[in-house]
Design a protein that fits this description.
Two copies of one chain form a homodimer.
Chain A: E1 2-9, H1 26-38, E2 45-46, E3 55-64, H2 71-81, E4 86-94, E5 106-114, E6 128-129, H3 136-143, E7 148-151, E8 166-177, E9 180-187, H4 194-206, H5 215-221, E10 236-242
Parallel strand pairs in A: 3-10, 5-6
Antiparallel strand pairs in A: 1-3, 1-4, 2-3, 5-9, 5-10, 7-8, 8-9
Helix pairs in contact in A: 1-2, 3-4
Chain lengths: ~250, ~250
């Protein structure tokens, strides 16, 4: 039986999702817990490869098992073995050919910016700190340039192995909740570091290093050198993965 | 000049506010930072003695200094020297006889309970986890018994040195934000462990070990043995201290 697990994790102490020799990864930590619960070593397939330091609220992954455990009982058994900075929040059955990356219709990421005058002791691990007040309305208006189908080649770090760089952004907003500023983006897919470069470019606009009016031309240029810096990983959180629930 | 600092801290790695030999405390950590910034060792007076593990969003304290630094410049200088789990968010002048504990008109605490089916990797340090669904409306109705002027002797751990055990609770609510349940209480003062025993008693009501209808009698008995257990420290956060702003 193929099961889909939903994971929530604090990415601070993980070197991202994917197994790498000699470092602590989400994938390997989960595989260890599955082996502890089921007695069998199973390969786990993730919905994406999140970077080191990136967090997840609802990361999806699948594995095949003969274990009779399901639902909250399976979650509880896995969480007993998982470290405190990671938890399984849902376990559902999927068809044997279901693939959490290829069948994802889209994802939503949120990037948090703590915009208080002083740093925040708790949000320090989950939000970038910018003490200069951000003009959220202006950034929200600028972010509209990201919406639509574009070649995001200029918003992609080297090292990606994907085919094609055209993606469709269906939603992109900048909002404020008190001193916290949230950049929220939904797309049918994301290139390597795409969200962090989108945020870094908006921050360059906020600082006056780039003009909001130039953002469409920067996108169209497909030139990484014209976009902004890659914002730090720790502000980023994978919030949701969308699937066709008939699959 | 007497200055009042507002502190935000993650209490996880502190043994509470008050200086104690051989352990890391908020008071001593702050005094070290003040000495680093001003060159003078100053005693800092706090608005209360928060317990080990308790967090603070706006803890108030005062110290006397000849330093010319004020406002955000002083905050930034102190935060440069403070560890990541603690920050000064405000610095204002107060009269020379201002005392942050004696002149506090009241305080607001919030106790967080993560009520999701599975534990939460990020809230693990800031909220008690209870997986059985809490009936927030019933608990809110029960908590109304705390409001008013009562002798809270039964809601006080041994070891307190305060005079008198009568306090006036002006607000006490239980609310839900998704899977997070918030217990919020404002009073003119709090006894040692009072909020944690108030929460523990409500959780005993939620579990059926105590009846909501008996809460007025439990309060009136002033008998610690009749109230519930002391809820764990890590769910508790000092949210606000109220002063007469003319002082």
């Amino acid at each position: 039986m193929r099961l889909q697990l939903t994971l929530r994790y604090d990415g601070t102490a993980f070197h991202g999702w994917q197994v790498q020799p000699g470092v602590r990864t989400v994938q390997e930590t989960l595989q260890d817990a599955i082996e502890a619960v089921t007695g069998v070593r199973s390969g786990v397939i993730g919905c994406s490869r999140t970077d080191a330091g990136v967090h997840a609220d609802r990361f999806c992954c699948t594995f095949d098992t003969d274990s009779p455990l399901r639902g909250n009982k399976l979650c509880s058994a896995l969480n007993f073995h998982l470290p405190e900075d990671m938890a399984v929040t849902e376990a559902i059955e999927r068809p044997a050919d279901f693939h959490p990356r290829y069948q994802a219709l889209g994802k939503r990421y949120v990037y948090r910016i703590w915009n208080g005058a002083q740093r925040h002791p708790i949000y320090a691990r989950y939000a970038l700190h910018r003490n200069r007040p951000l003009d959220v309305d202006a950034l929200h208006a600028a972010a509209a340039a990201y919406v639509g189908t574009h070649d995001f080649a200029g918003f992609c770090s080297a090292g990606s192995d994907v085919q094609g760089t055209v993606r469709t952004v269906t939603r992109c907003t900048v909002t404020r909740q008190g001193d916290m500023v949230l950049f929220t983006v939904e797309a049918d897919g994301f290139l390597y570091n795409m969200v962090r470069i989108m945020v870094g470019t908006l921050l360059d606009i906020a600082d006056g290093r780039l003009a909001a009016a130039d953002l469409p031309a920067i996108l169209a240029s497909a030139d990484r050198a014209r976009a902004g810096a890659t914002a730090p990983a720790h502000g980023l959180c994978l919030q949701e993965v969308f699937y066709d629930e008939r699959s």
